[in-house]
């Protein structure tokens, strides 16, 4: 039993540690390590703290002598000046700065594609450093139902905008139409209450961002002109951080399936912040196609954020991320980590070997071999005879075979259902038996009439084939 004098346990109800005080006074915030579940307090850099107090302090100085416009100009000018400094190529300035940064933030240089720090000509070049290909493995790279992290970051996820604005994003005018800068696009692609994931990159993080899914990108459009900090202490106030800051917007027509469609639109918004010089893209062109996990762009120095947007009720975020977000706690994740999954669609079963890739999810687990070489002979001769009509004709053949898949797969009803649902089975079927020598596999084509025909040798992808039509997909197993 607690006694008033000998064991003053009542004091625990009144004690505040310094981190709680710092959080209350906008000096930092809590972040959870996803693996260990440990919560740690991250102090806010002094330059961010000064900027925030200039913006949020309601004193006579900030309201009258400085004014909001002057503070905005101060932050913008400082961001550009800092960017110019970080683009200098003077080794006497660059190398000490890089060395100090590596030591301060304990950067693992063994993961760098270019581990020689002296090879970086500017600090921004180092800041947008690339990693070795195996440094960030991508979860389920061939399963379109799985969503992966776009960045090394502090992550929050939200099933809908309503919840996000209640718990996390407090900006006066925040909405998806404002974020995208296009009300019509927001309504047509994402509806009234879409899902969000917010990836905040701290200065110490790897500052390249990657595609969360496979798909085709629109060309980027730019919005905003501010350079507010994206620190949670700013996002959790009435300041319109995400809808006022300089940002680039792209829409991905992804291969993420849903219960009603084969594709899902994904909004991808890269947001600059205090001291960020620029946002860069690997490819800015309309129709650029990226695979899940591909490096698609970078931020230069400073804090920065990516927001991805999904139509409502399309994605289920991982439970640990959703639970932490509801408590107002960011979770540290890395590029390629599993963060969510498409709703209402079963995941694709992993293939047996590195040469096998699943084609599409269904209500049944299906394995399909991806032949790295396209069927030649008959198709190749047709392509040479009429190359302009070839892609259209091949697409028509594929659709016809998908529609009549029951004829070919009468004894394989489960695979047939997958093919009929997703339309990805092509005219080339694998004719080997388990245990056959893979180097001696023959590829045969069964026509709609059931006539077996040998397509002969296999030609290289690109000759007599259309890569976008996936003519090399085949079912693994016995002749069907």
From TrEMBL:
<keyword id="KW-0594">Phospholipid biosynthesis</keyword>
<dbReference type="GO" id="GO:0006646">
    <property type="term" value="P:phosphatidylethanolamine biosynthetic process"/>
</dbReference>
<keyword id="KW-0812">Transmembrane</keyword>
<protein>
    <recommendedName>
        <fullName>phosphatidylserine decarboxylase</fullName>
        <ecNumber>4.1.1.65</ecNumber>
    </recommendedName>
</protein>
<keyword id="KW-0472">Membrane</keyword>
<dbReference type="GO" id="GO:0004609">
    <property type="term" value="F:phosphatidylserine decarboxylase activity"/>
</dbReference>
<keyword id="KW-0444">Lipid biosynthesis</keyword>
<keyword id="KW-0670">Pyruvate</keyword>
<keyword id="KW-1208">Phospholipid metabolism</keyword>
<comment type="pathway">
    <text>Lipid metabolism.</text>
</comment>
<keyword id="KW-1133">Transmembrane helix</keyword>
<feature type="transmembrane region" description="Helical">
    <location>
        <begin position="389"/>
        <end position="410"/>
    </location>
</feature>
<dbReference type="InterPro" id="IPR003817">
    <property type="entry name" value="PS_Dcarbxylase"/>
</dbReference>
<comment type="pathway">
    <text>Phospholipid metabolism; phosphatidylethanolamine biosynthesis.</text>
</comment>
<dbReference type="Pfam" id="PF02666">
    <property type="entry name" value="PS_Dcarbxylase"/>
</dbReference>
<keyword id="KW-0443">Lipid metabolism</keyword>
<keyword id="KW-0456">Lyase</keyword>
<keyword id="KW-0210">Decarboxylase</keyword>
<dbReference type="InterPro" id="IPR033177">
    <property type="entry name" value="PSD-B"/>
</dbReference>
